[in-house]
Write a structure and sequence with these properties.
A hairpin with a 2-residue loop joins strand 9 and strand 10. This protein has helices spanning about 5-15, 30-40, 55-65, 65-75, 95-110, 120-125, 150-155, 155-165, 175-190, 195-205, 205-225, 230-240, 255, 260-275, 305-315, 320-325, 325-330, 335-350, 395-405, 450-455; strands spanning about 20-25, 45-50, 85-90, 115-120, 140, 280-285, 295-305, 355-360, 370-375, 380-385, 405-410, 415-425, 425, 430, 435-445. The chain has an eight-stranded mixed sheet. A five-stranded parallel sheet has the order 2-3-4-1-5, with helices on both faces. The chain has a two-stranded antiparallel sheet with strand order 13-14. The protein is an alpha/beta fold. The longest helix is centred in the middle third of the chain and has 21 residues, at about 205-225. Helices cover about 45% and strands about 20% of the residues.
């Protein structure tokens, strides 16, 4: 199973000052599978230690005795090979916090030994400051569900090759657009959880995929008991179940949970975000670079972990998704906004975990909202998910009038296009001077190639 992360791990492995790598991400997004695939691709002997199953190792790591630790690991796995031929993988490292501390000594004493660590609910262990973190001695990597491109690679290699090499100065044939649109619809149903993708690639759209979605969601809810007090457990489970219905909407605590105080609901959402089961998309006033300098953490909307899990929770079956018209698919149910956000997180945030932002203006003369805003080479770029023509993009026009800029983006289900927009904006009933900008439109399924799109525009 191909993952884009394999290229990043290869770069890490060959780095001149390689540090132990900690892979962060939600449960079942494929962290352990990724490491196994990487070891096989590189021809490395993999020494895997599941620390959750070997809790006694925590005290051994606490001693700081490198020789004893390596001997114990050898006894649990297999004899060490020659330098450069092995890879040590410490799985479920959150179960033994002293192993996290000890990672610095691998960097200082055994730089020849590549070490990768991963774990579920690792964010909570990393947030515990009762022990010193190996600051500057480790690097982090963020892994999410499989992207549409990875799904395409697994299920339709020929079509993936076309998608991955499409040049923006070419005309997209209707036949390819239809095939990519159909695969995109399948991805919205299946989602990017590796187990679901693997089953889909083997048997197609079957009821078993829904069974996988249900099992994953149940596993997450069971996990809450590991880090939540009993009083908080029911609240976490209820809010977790409610999030799919709030995707793309400004969060109002009292409407998510009428029984709880706002502070309790906020705390629960923050815990779920730490567990990477959801993402908070914060409003930014977009007054300058970086975007997060203008972030207002009191105003945010939510994304769920995965579009397939989201659809299962909302009760959307494959038959229902097939019946949706393209206009409905883009504009109803926040499904397209979930997909775009999920892809943006994968494209832009694997290494530095920068959050996503959107722009919101609320006033007496009406509200305006741009679905996402990103920065690129010193310019703030708005991204809208719409199906209408540019003349209907009133919020986007207001943003361009207030914030300036020369480029804006729209993702829909139409063929790629570019047009120069010249329009007037009315604020408070008064017409403002005309604004001019380039509007770049792309099908939803091309958002995974955003970096290539931006490079082409430059």
């Amino acid at each position: 199973m191909y993952r884009d992360a394999l290229q990043d791990l290869t770069t890490w492995f060959h780095g001149s000052h390689r540090k132990p790598l900690i892979i962060r991400g939600a449960r079942q997004v494929g962290k352990s599978t990724l490491v196994s695939l990487f070891a096989a691709e590189m021809g490395l002997t993999l020494h895997t230690v599941n620390l959750e199953r070997n809790l006694y190792l925590d005290e051994l790591f606490r001693t700081g005795d490198m020789g004893r630790i390596l001997s114990e690991i050898e006894g649990l796995t297999q004899p060490w090979g020659s330098p450069g031929s092995t890879l040590l993988f410490l799985d479920e490292i959150q179960a033994t916090p002293h192993a996290i501390q000890f990672l610095r000594y691998f960097y200082e004493e055994r730089p020849d030994l590549p070490v990768i660590a991963a774990g579920s609910l690792l964010e909570f262990t990393l947030a515990d400051h009762r022990y010193s973190m190996p600051v500057g001695r480790v690097v982090y990597y963020h892994l999410g569900p499989m992207t549409f491109g990875e799904f395409l690679h697994e299920c339709d290699a020929e079509l993936f090759a076309y998608w991955n090499t499409f040049q923006w100065n070419q005309q997209l044939p209707e036949s390819y657009h239809a095939r990519l649109s159909r695969r995109h619809r399948e991805y919205l149903f299946c989602g990017g959880m590796p187990e679901a993708v693997q089953l889909f690639s083997e048997i197609g759209l079957q009821a078993q995929i829904a069974d996988i979605h249900r099992s994953i969601l149940e596993t997450y809810e069971d996990d809450f008991a590991k880090y939540a007090r009993r009083d908080d457990l029911i609240r976490l489970q209820q809010i977790f179940r409610a999030i799919p219905a709030w995707v793309g909407r400004k969060v109002i605590y009292s409407r998510i949970s009428r029984e709880d105080r706002a502070a309790q609901t906020r705390s629960a959402i923050e815990m779920l975000a730490k567990a990477r089961t959801c993402t908070q998309v914060f409003h930014s006033d977009c007054s300058g670079i970086p975007i997060d300098a203008g972030e207002d953490r009191r105003i945010f909307k939510l994304l769920f972990l995965d579009c397939g899990l989201m659809n299962y929770r909302l009760g959307l079956s494959w038959r229902h998704l097939q019946a949706l018209e393209e206009f409905q698919l883009v504009n109803e149910g926040a499904l397209a906004e979930q997909f775009i956000g999920q892809e943006l997180l994968a494209v832009r945030n694997r290494r530095d975990a920068r959050g996503l932002h959107y722009w919101l203006r609320e006033g007496r003369d009406g509200n305006a909202e741009v679905d996402y805003v990103i920065d690129h080479e010193g310019e703030i770029l708005p991204i809208e998910v719409k199906a209408g023509k540019s003349g209907r993009l009133k919020s986007l026009h207001q943003f361009m009038h207030r914030k300036g800029g020369s480029h804006a983006f729209r993702f829909n289900m139409h063929l790629p296009s570019r047009e120069e927009v010249l329009t007037e904006v009315s604020l408070g009933g008064q017409k403002m001077p005309s604004i001019r900008f380039q509007l770049h439109s792309f099908p939803l399924y091309f958002v995974g190639r955003l970096e290539a799109i931006l490079g082409n525009i430059n």
